Amino acid sequence: MRGVGEISVPVVPGGLVADVTVPYAARGVVLFAHGSGSSRHSPRNVAVGRALHARGLGTVLVDLLTIDEEARDEVTAALRFDIGMLADRLAGIVDWMATEPELGRLPTGIFGASTGAAAALVAAAARPDRVGAVVSRGGRPDLAGRALSGVRAPTLLLVGGLDEQVIALNEQARGVLGEVAELRVVPGAGHLFAEPGTLEEVAEQAGTWFRTHLRQPHPV
Question: 2-213 falls under which CATH superfamily?
Answer without folding.
Answer: Alpha/Beta hydrolase fold, catalytic domain (3.40.50.1820)
